[in-house]
Amino acid sequence: MDLERLIALARKHAEAEGGGDMEGTLGTLQRDPVYELQPVGLAFRGMAGARVFYEHFFASFQPLIAGYELRSEFVSEEGVAQEYVIALRFPDGRRERHPVLGILTFGSEALSGERVWGSERLLRLMFGPAYEQATPIG
C-alpha cells in the first residue's frame, strides 16, 4: 500500500474513533495490531485486544471527554503521530486535562497498531480492561 493511502487510512481511523464508530475504527487495522502504552512499557496485541480496548473506550472513556485539541500532527513513512490535549469531565464535576501523543503505525496493508504516550492515569482511564490485560514490553 502506498504512503498516501496509509496516511489517509490513519486519518480515517482518527475520524472513526472520534465519531464512536467501532467497526470503522477496527476496519482500519491489520489482523494482528499491536498497541504499546508508553512510558509505562506495556503492550497488547491482536484484534480481540483491540476490541476490548475500543469497547471500553467508546462506552466508558469517550463520555468523559469534554473536549480535545489537536496540537500537532507529524507524518513519516513509519506512521502518523497526533498530539492532543484532552479535557475530561467526571460525573462528580471534577475536571482534568491530559496531553497525549498517539502514533498510528503503518503495516503493509493497513495500520499495524498504535503507540500511545500519556500519563499512567490517562492510560488507565483510556484503556481500562485492556490496560489491565497488557503485558510488559520486552
Top CATH class: Alpha Beta
What is the number of domains?
Answer: 1
Instruction: Compute the separation of the termini in Å.
Output: 29 Å
Q: Give the radius of gyration.
A: 14 Å
Q: What oligomeric state do these chains adopt?
A: single chain
Query: Major beta sheet, specifics?
Result: 7 strands, mixed
What is the overall silhouette?
A: globular
Q: Mean pLDDT, nearest integer? A: 96
Which helices and strands appear, and what pairs or packs with what?
Layout: H1 3-18, H2 22-26, E1 29-38, E2 42-45, H3 47-61, E3 65-75, E4 79-89, E5 95-106, E6 111-117, H4 120-127, H5 129-133, E7 135-136
Parallel strand pairs: 1-6
Antiparallel strand pairs: 1-2, 2-7, 3-4, 4-5, 5-6
Give a verbal description of the structure.
This protein has a 7-stranded mixed β-sheet. The protein has a single domain, classed as Nuclear Transport Factor 2, Chain: A (Roll), CATH 3.10.450.50. It is globular. The chain is built from 5 helices and 7 strands, in the order H-H-E-E-H-E-E-E-E-H-H-E. With 138 residues, it is of the alpha+beta class. 36% of the residues lie in helices and 41% in strands.
